[in-house]
Specification:
Elements: H1 5-12, H2 16-31, E1 37-38, H3 50-61, H4 77-91, E2 100-103, H5 105-117, E3 123-127, H6 133-140, E4 144-148, H7 158-164, E5 169-175, H8 187-204, E6 209-213, E7 236-241, E8 254-258, H9 265-278, H10 286-292, H11 302-319, E9 331-332, H12 341-350, E10 353-354, E11 356-357, E12 367-370, H13 375-390
Parallel strand pairs: 1-10, 3-4, 3-5, 5-6, 6-7
Antiparallel strand pairs: 2-8, 7-8, 9-12, 11-12
């Protein structure tokens, strides 16, 4: 066999998002892209802010010696300082450039952190529903992703998480606002989580690190706020990117930051800088580092996504769909009529509507809709959603 057994197996069970994406391409070839309502991929459809375009042109035009050379693996010191200053205010913690590394997006940041933390066979916990790529990220570094049931209202179940913690547990990943549910975990939950992790770390005799994956932090609605994890737990690592708030996912630029009071904080940082290099990222792209240096706090207008959310939710609610309105991100996770998410998603495909079955996110019986699409796509899809739900009544 030409390729590794593990990769062969992974190809056979490729992510549901990728399957729906491929199915969508076939439908678009057959019926035309203007007839297919594609809600499968969380690809931002709002242009980057004008400030991004202006800054990009200015930075590209700058004549600067050695501007395309290698840099410190953690990123340019002046950029790290600027990003850290903003993150420190956001997280209510004294994070400086010494505790922050620039990475190739959130995916790169998570892999750098997990490579640094995981011993062979370690368990990493995640609450359902969860972003499906976490399993591959953990597996990349010899760990095992252990799934934990969340509450019916999509919040974290602190007692359930506690029951899964053993001496083999190295970390817990949370994602808020959540992909696929749009849930923001409330501050009371984060406070309880921090207290429990501190207690369980003492019980099992090892530091359990909390990794907070936050690329949707600025895509929030209705006055909701994403609470700081650093304010409630010192063994915290925050990972984020500019993919969603600046609408530049293809540029692969993000960061990872460590709470300054975390156990072995300096070793953690040094380990992640090393892993940034040996995993092949080497460092985050130089051009994008220089651009985001000047754009701290800049974001797309989340109101544009809020209006799309409301348009979708209003239409589906009238048709009888059941869901919890997302507090952030650009995903909706309705219950699948009839209870079988795969069957219902296949029914929607017959209506030329592409969504993703919830089982891929640890949420069987639900399906995910990515509403980062043109308003016309949402409006055009309603007749198909209506016919699909009628088929299950």
């Amino acid at each position: 066999m030409a390729i590794a057994f593990k990769i062969k197996e992974m190809l056979g069970r490729s992510s549901w998002i990728r399957r729906m994406f491929d199915a969508g391409n076939k439908l678009k070839e057959q019926y035309g892209s203007d007839r297919v309502c594609d809600f499968s991929l969380g690809n931002p459809n709002i242009d980057p802010p004008e400030e991004f375009q202006e800054t990009l042109l200015r930075v590209v035009s700058e004549k600067k010696p050695f501007k395309h050379c290698y840099m410190p693996n953690a990123g340019y010191p002046e950029v790290r300082a600027k990003v850290a200053q903003y993150v420190a205010e956001e997280q209510k913690a004294a994070i400086s450039e010494k505790q922050l590394i620039l990475t190739c997006g959130s995916g790169g940041g998570l892999n750098v952190a997990l490579k640094t933390l995981i011993n062979q066979g370690d368990r990493v916990l995640v609450s359902k529903p969860y972003f499906m790529e976490y399993a591959s990220y953990v597996d990349n570094h010899g760990g095992v992703l252990e799934l934990v049931e969340g509450k019916g209202d999509l919040d974290l179940d602190i007692d359930e998480i506690a029951s899964h913690i053993t001496s083999q547990t190295s970390a817990l990943i949370i994602n808020s606002p959540n992909n696929p549910s749009g849930m923001i975990y409330p501050e009371t939950t984060i406070a309880s989580l921090g207290e429990m992790l501190q207690r369980k770390s003492s019980e099992v005799g090892r530091s359990i690190y909390l990794l907070s994956d936050e690329p949707y932090r600025k895509i929030v609605y209705d006055g909701n706020v994403v609470p700081s994890i650093c304010a409630h737990y010192r063994n915290s690592i925050i990972v984020s990117s500019y993919s969603k708030d600046l609408s530049i996912p293809g540029e692969r630029i993000g960061w990872v930051a460590v709470h300054p009071d975390a156990d072995d904080a300096q070793d953690l940082i040094n380990g992640m800088i090393l892993c940034n290099r040996i995993l092949g990222f080497v460092n985050a792209p130089a051009l994008m580092q220089r651009v985001v240096q000047h754009l701290q706090g800049t974001s797309v207008d989340a109101e544009l996504y809020r209006r799309k959310r409301d348009l979708l939710c209003s239409g589906l609610e009238k048709l009888g769909y059941s869901f919890k309105k997302p507090m952030g991100s650009f995903y909706l996770l309705p219950k699948a009529p009839g209870g079988d998410d795969l069957r219902f998603v296949e029914t929607l495909q017959e209506e030329l509507i592409l969504t993703v079955p919830g089982r891929g996110f640890g949420a069987p019986g639900y399906f995910r809709i990515a509403f980062c699409v043109e308003d016309g796509v949402i409006e055009r899809s309603m007749e198909g959603f209506a016919r699909a739900i009628r088929a299950f009544k």
